[in-house]
Every structure is written in structure tokens, then in C-alpha cells.
Amino acid sequence: MDHYLPAASPQLLRAINTAALAHRGHVRKGTDIPYVSHVFAVMHLVSQVTDDEDVLIAALFHDILEDVPEAYSAEQMATDFGDHVVDLVRGVTKDDTLTDWQERSEAYLAHLRSADEGSVLVSVADKLHNLLSIHADLDVIGDELWGRFNSPVERQVWWYRSVYEVAREKLPNNALLDELGRQVERLERRTA
């Protein structure tokens, strides 16, 4: 029996294009891969566990306010897609006034503890895609990979484990979170 897959709404299609334009010219850290591939992957992962359009749009926009606010402001995002989308994106946006990596990471975790469930879901998908990419790159280039990051491998492991632990409090019985947990454990084994 064939399953019916509804077409993406005009709003979601507009969000896909907006995200692509906001991140145009950007690439994934240490690669030539267009950054928008990450954005689309995060939305795809989120779509496996929810059909809430605001959450799907927030997944597409999750790095805009942190990385390219000059390309697409929170005000424009609110006008185009609503305050709820902006709130969800802000729920996963690191505080750029904090310059220390550890301090910024701890502030993110504290914020995530009180964030909307939709924001937590986007964070889980974001970290899951990052970890899947890390594992793929480790398979190809090995420990040379860690030179791409602003913190040592031990801090990266701590970061992914910490996000998982916070999310576990907020999203019980979630398949995406379960997969993040498996990938965190895999990272811990690979870096032990």
C-alpha cells in the first residue's frame, strides 16, 4: 500500500529558500560542503519525530541568529514566520556576548533546561547531525579532525554528553534523543 506524503506547505518552502539564502557562501567547518546541507539535515531529522511546522522552520533557521544575523534578522524572521519561530530559534542560540567557549556552552545548557520542547528537539537534531558528521570525518581523516574545533576533544565529548543529559530531562521517550545517546556513547568509546 502506498503512503501519502503531503507536499511541503508554501510557508515551509519559503523557509527552505530563506535558510539557503541566509547561509549562501558558507561551508561546514574544515570542508567545502555548503553549510546549508547541515540546516536541511537538521530539519529532516526533526521531521522524523514531529510535523509541527514552526519546529521544522526553526530547525532550518537554528543557526541564523547565532551565525548570520546580518543576513536575516530576528525582526524579519518574526515578520515572515511569527514570534513562535523566533522564540524557538532563540532557544538554541548561543549568547555571543560570552567569548569563552566553556562559559558560552554552560550558558547554552542552562538556557536549554528552560527552553520550549521544540527548541530542545531542534538542539537534539543539530547535535545528532554534528555527531554523525564527526563520526564520518573520523573514519576518513582520524584525529586530525579535532583541529577544526575551538576546544579540545575532551571538551567536545563533554559538550555532546551534556546536551544529551539536559535533553533527556525534557524529551522522554524520543527516538531522536535515543539516537543522540547512542552516538554520544560511540564518541566516548572512540575518544577514550
TrEMBL record:
Checking InterPro entries in the record gives: HD/PDEase_dom, MESH1
Which Pfam families is this protein grouped with? Answer: HD_4 (PF13328)
Per UniProt, which keywords does this protein have?
Hydrolase
| Xref: CDD domains | HDc (cd00077)
Q: Which SUPFAM superfamilies match?
A: HD-domain/PDEase-like
Q: Name one GO molecular function term.
A: guanosine-3',5'-bis(diphosphate) 3'-diphosphatase activity
The HD/PDEase domain extends over 31-140
Tell me the protein's name.
Bifunctional (P)ppGpp synthetase/guanosine-3',5'-bis(Diphosphate) 3'-pyrophosphohydrolase
The record lists the organism as Corynebacterium lujinxingii
Higher taxonomy: Bacteria, Bacillati, Actinomycetota, Actinomycetes, Mycobacteriales
